[in-house]
Amino acid sequence: xxxxxxxxxxxxxxxxxxxxxxxxxxxxxxxxxxxxxxxxxxxxxxxxxxxxxxxxxxxxxxxxxxxxxxxxxxxxxxxxxxxxxxxxxxxxxxxxxxxxxxxxxxxxxxxxxxxxxxxxxxxxxxxxxxxxxxxxxxxxxxxxxxxxxxxxxxxxxxxxxxxxxxxxxxxxxxxxxxxxxxxxxxxxxxxxxxxxxxxxxxxxxxxxxxxxxxxxxxxxxxxxxxxxxxxxxxxxxxxxxxxxxxxxxxxxxxxxxxxxxxxxxxxxxxxxxxxxxxxxxxxxxxxxxxxxxxxxxxxxxxxxxxxxxxxxxxxxxxxxxxxxxxxxxxxxxxxxxxxxxxxxxxxxxxxxxxxxxxxxx
Length: 361
Prior knowledge:
By secondary structure, the chain is mostly beta strands. It has helices at 28-32, 283-295, 300-304; strands at residues 36-37, 41-42, 54-58, 61-69, 72-77, 84-88, 103-107, 110-115, 120-127, 130-138, 146-154, 157-163, 170-175, 180-185, 203-207, 213-218, 223-230, 233-241, 247-250, 253-256, 261-262, 266-269, 274-278, 281-282, 311-315, 321-326, 331-336, 342-347, 352-357. The protein is built from three helices and 29 strands.
């Protein structure tokens, strides 16, 4: 199962500044005004539902948390007709069971699942035509923690974003025995004296296919940081912003100004480029939309998405903008292939899968 597309969910971000030369900010127009309009090609939607938070694409079909049926949470679905081929993984606390799929990563033939409630990482492997689930890591760090995101560097090494209410978020390398290999405190803003604990749920990790670079994004201030993973060490490389963060300090925490343009970013790494999906809106509009969604009792995904057409920004691995596109969907997940011009998206508005061709890359 090579030529893999990875789709992950989260609340994310990206931008433009080099730490070695000082912080430089772009205006939102720099990223959006020259965007090329693209039209998607809908694919079978039999297996896509409003619960499709985690979905990956492979040549054998789509695999991930899709419709909850037959008591199983993970399914492999046919690419052509959308029928479920095989299913695995029941909900529970026992071996091979899972309580919450908070994040996942597809490496080779194996799907890795993060369960922060049961504090474990599971592996779902495909044997012949059957999916097999097994627990492989017991996340037993001593201090209070909450595991938010995960990237599988190998079967024995994982990059994690770990946080809690009591201490700052950290990027960690953890081995299969739950030993802490390396750790680095994460600060999305330049002022490291600020209390950044509020960012713990708006952070996403994305590992390059070569496993050399780790990208970490913060959705609250539209920044993305690039790190190198070398000899089991996390080495900072660069940080960029889509626009200048506008905030004031209240009770030691940065609070965004209401006119700040929030991009609600999510990032995905391909063989050659970093793909960033953005849904631009002001903080004022963002707050009003969330308040209305709560009053109407709508679900998490509707609460978290503006419902507008999503932009796809393409960056090189030095975080320079290559090209921008405007889709005709409200994208909740994106997947990239070994062909840099082909991506697949999950459209929240229509609960369907859509294929896009990004010409000119």
